[in-house]
Design a protein that fits this description.
The chain has 156 residues and is an alpha/beta fold. The protein contains six helices and five strands, in the order H-E-H-E-H-H-H-E-E-E-H. The chain starts with a helix and ends with a helix.
Length: 156
Amino acid sequence: MIDRPTRVLAALRLNDATVAIAESLTGGLVGMQLTAVPGASDAFRGGVIAYATDVKASVLGVDAGLLEREGAVHPEVAGQMATGVRSLLGATYGLALTGVAGPDPQDGKAPGTLHVAVDGPAGLTVDSPAITATDRAGIRDEAARVAFDLLLAVVR
């Protein structure tokens, strides 16, 4: 079976499209998995690891009022991150992840809370799936899988 990053890159190439990624809880894991695939540079523009809340605002253009009101772990924040990275890096699609990898809660949200967004030619898609993993590494791995699946669903 072909792995998710390979499928994502193939779908992007087939559609003559590119992707840029804004990662928070995954800390670069999604970009690392994409760039492990030979020829990834055909479709992967780059990424921003916006781990700190203020970086989400200053680099990706997430509304500071939203961050102050809701915190960094919010579906609207994921959407604005996706839009921001798409614009910043000039990609067809922007993919963003924000959430809590744990072990402690953040902004009152439990570990495993995840918001993923894709911004593309057809508009913005945001998902807040339930994560079944309970440890930090498992949450991050599952978040990456979910992000690839959402991007594949939108690109196809």
